[in-house]
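Following up on my earlier message about aspartic acid. Here are the inputs again, as you asked, copied directly from the submission form:
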Amino acid sequence: MNRPVLLCHGGAGSKKPLKAALSGLEKTLAKSFKLLDDGGSALDAVTSAIVHMENSGLYNAGKGANLQLDGIRRLDASIMEGNSLQAGAVIGLEGFANPILLSRLVMDMAHKVFTNLGAAKIAEAEKIARLGPPNERSLKRLDRAMAKGGPALELYRKYFSTVGAIALDSSGCLAAGSSTGGVFAMLPGRVGDTPLIGSGVYADNSLGAVACTGRGEDILRLCLAKEVCMNMKNRSAEDASYLSFKRALSLGFQAGILALDRKGRWSITHTTAHMPAGAASKEGVIVRDRFRRVE
Ligand code: ASP
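Thanks, got it. Here's what our run produced:
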């Protein structure tokens, strides 16, 4: 029997997270850890945690997702399970609130990755909740960003509040998932690391599980999730993350990761000043806005 563990994050960045984002993480961890504690699977706990965060509207995922520059929300998500190495992902989903549920469904299908064309049809058939129209506040925020234009957009990228979760269940199975609205004020059609298996997420019971957040353009070039998992073959989650982050930092990357090795040792590491995240185990729930910063 393994000791179950669940980790979640609400993004990484240079701006201090809102209190609501931290308390949202606490609620998510408490609720979804119960599933693991009752003998549920790592995959179900990860799915439940991410749905909870997508529905909260507090993060850049699901109901709270960023708009692309044409005012449309296009959502990306992926999920992976470490026993069968099954994985599913959706890219650029429009009009539906829970891309993680769709990724979970896709995982059991013949194809493993869908863009909006197929993903929206599956979402419709499976009755995935619809996404309402963007609120006034996000439309205004987009207008302001457009008015400032060009480099000023970087100001809005100080905080990447994507969500992610990883878990180890009592049978020793690992899972990882992530869901995002991408980065703020991005060009329509832009895709980051989140729906790319091996970049945004990876899980393999013989290695570990990882979920990444931060500037997708950085993370996907290192295939960071798979790299940290490979490093966990003969290192703890902490040492494996540190090793990859030293290199990522030398390349100027902005990133944060959750990592869990097969023995249940975990680590939350970031190059950014903040990374609201936490862990739940039988010992209780820990949530903070900073963990191990590599600088
Ligand atoms: N990695 C995500 C992306 O680039 C953003 C984030 O983690 O907040 O789309």
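One observation from looking it over: The chain is about 30% helix and 25% strand. Hope that helps, and feel free to reply on this thread.
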